[in-house]
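For the sake of transparency, this paper describes our internal protein records without simplification. An entry from our holdings is shown next, in its original layout:
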Amino acid sequence: MRRRDLMGAAAGIATAMTTTMSPGEALAQNRPAAPPARAPRAPAPPPSTPASSPLGPVDTQARQALMVDFDTGAVLLEKNPDERMPPSSMSKLMTMHVVFDMLKAGRLRMDQLLPVSERAWRMGGSKMFVQLGTQVSVENLTRGVIVQSGNDACIVLAEGISGSETQFAEVMNETGRRIGLRASTFRNSTGWPDPEQRMSARDLATLARRIILDHPEYYRFYNERSFRWNEITQENRNPTLTRVAGADGLKTGHTEEAGYGLTASAMRGGRRLILVLNGLGSMRARAEESERLLEWGFREFDNVVLFRAADTVEEVPVYLGDRPTVPLVAGRDLVVTLPRQWRRNIQARVRFDAPVPAPVSKGQAIGTLLVSGQGVPEMNVPLIAGADVDRLGLLPRIPALIGRWFGS
């Protein structure tokens, strides 16, 4: 086993890296107009309870919090990230993921009209103010859900797609299992208080990432600042859209039990962060915490490119090949998210068995890159052959075989 220390190389890499009331406002607070039973307000944690991060404790008023890097999945900050919590209107992210899936599959069209039932029309909480007996296009309902957080719009979509909201919730659960949500249970499309409607901050971050990755053509709706329907204009409640440079989504939520929450995303210089907060005490706290923490994430962390996909990490000797060596490459960009001051701590070592017997196929795994360092998360990355190497014919192989036999 051959092992080469790339500390110097990694240090060189680091120095070259770049950082890559309106009439409906009272209703729009998502409080039940006449709830069957008021859920108890969960006690807030002591203000001094911090979140954890690679840089140490970080104060936050949120009961649950998670910040991740979109590309690397690195956790920048977390506090009770796997705790099952009432997601309130952040549930609507899953409602829209299901809608987007059906649009993508051709089972739904943006210009398709869906009927407004009496149940949808009577629904309390945040409203789009759809009218009983009318039909509304999927596109307008999409804006009604995303921009206005309309519970009525959610029910029109759920009933139009699955026949009932109960059946639609089953589709939400199936979709959640398929995309890897581990702590989520859905009983309705709106986030209306239900003791079994639960998600975790980690699941919300995963769901936000899947919406952005799977449905970029529809993600743009989350950046719309206002929408007018039925002569009522409502503003997008996401405070980061106006307070944080590069913010372009996603969804707020509020109930008495859950407190004020937000799933947000922002992108700067090609780097995207996802932030989930819940359990805050006021709209102001939600706005201030989301701004402060996103700014902290962009300021304190960088994405460091160790190697590009086609960069040669090492030339590996080949035995009985038609070329003496084969380039060892990563096959994908190797990027790690680190606190800015940790760049100098990166150590990289490459490990492989040599010589590699011919033939060698491009893409064949023949080595490993080990990344470590003080405070740096350890990574073991497979390295692959960057080219094909054919086996020598019999006559050209004879000198090499003789040399090996006689140790010359």
